[in-house]
Amino acid sequence: DTGVSQDPRHKITKRGQNVTFRCDPISEHNRLYWYRQTLGQGPEFLTYFQNEAQLEKSRLLSDRFSAERPKGSFSTLEIQRTEQGDSAMYLCASSATITEDTQYFGPGTRLTVL
Amino acid sequence: AQTVTQSQPEMSVQEAETVTLSCTYDTSENNYYLFWYKQPPSRQMILVIRQEAYKQQNATENRFSVNFQKAAKSFSLKISDSQLGDTAMYFCAFNKDSGNTPLVFGKGTRLSVIA
Q1: Beta bridge partners of residue A93, listed in sequence order
Q2: Is there a contact between B100 and A56 if contact means CB atoms under 8 Å apart?
Q3: By the CB < 8 Å criterion, does B7 face chain A?
Q4: pLDDT over 70 at B98, yes or no
Q5: Mean confidence (pLDDT) of chain A
Q6: Triad A41, B21, A92: Cα angle to 5°
Q7: In chain B, pLDDT over 90 holds for what percent of residues?
Q8: Does residue A1 register a pLDDT over 60?
Q9: What part of B 9-38 touches A (C-beta under 8 Å)?
Q10: Nearest CA to B102 among A32, A99, A79?
């Protein structure tokens, strides 16, 4: 296992369309995090999971956003009715709760909403 | 609410020289962790160094070291013998409890190492 992977790496969509991103964490990592990073800013927390349970959602996560981790492995982040303000880099990170708590980041999915 | 402030949007340093990046934070938590992450251009974020708040000794990792001043809520990163590969965005980050909680990031400092 070489690290956290995210797919797609880039997504261009038109306003109003739905998009879905996927994150595959490091194998056996219990916790999975989603962050959003806009240009010139640090990443901002969106939501995170312990196995399949969603532990917390940021107030940034409007009702157009939904995240799942159905089997406690990969996770998906869906944005419905995209808006231009959703354009950002969406980062995924994972960590192992027992052996090591460092968060390892994926390469991100860059979303552009036209 | 926790906040992290990086007051230097951009910095530059000559190759082989030493540079210090500043970070301050605000929290009412007693147990927390501090991190410096590096994000090279078009590449993913990687951990540079971490510090547990309960440890008085400053963390070091090869050419990277921190100056942790708990009372002042300050956490600066020193890079010694700067290399061209150190060119990147550097983010200071904080999380509470065990470390397996969401990170709060600063806005970052863009560091350029000049040959």
Answers
A1: A33, A105
A2: no
A3: no
A4: no
A5: 93
A6: 40
A7: 79
A8: no
A9: 33, 37
A10: A32
pLDDT at A98: 66
SS3 A28: coil
Q: Which of residues 29-88 of A touch B (CB under 8 A)?
A: 31, 33, 35, 40-45, 48, 56, 58
Cα distance from B100 to chain A (closest Cα, Å)? 5
Sequence-separated (6 or more) residues with CB below 8 Å from residue A52: A69, A70, A71, A72
B18: tokens are 């030493």
CB burial readout B53-81, b (16+ within 10 A) else e: beeeeebeeeebbbebeeeebebbbbbee
Contact A103 B47 (CB under 8 A): yes
Give the dihedral sign, CA B8/B110/B62/B15.
negative
Give the model confidence (pLDDT) of B2-48 as tens digits.
899 999 999 999 999 999 999 999 998 888 899 999 999 888 899 99
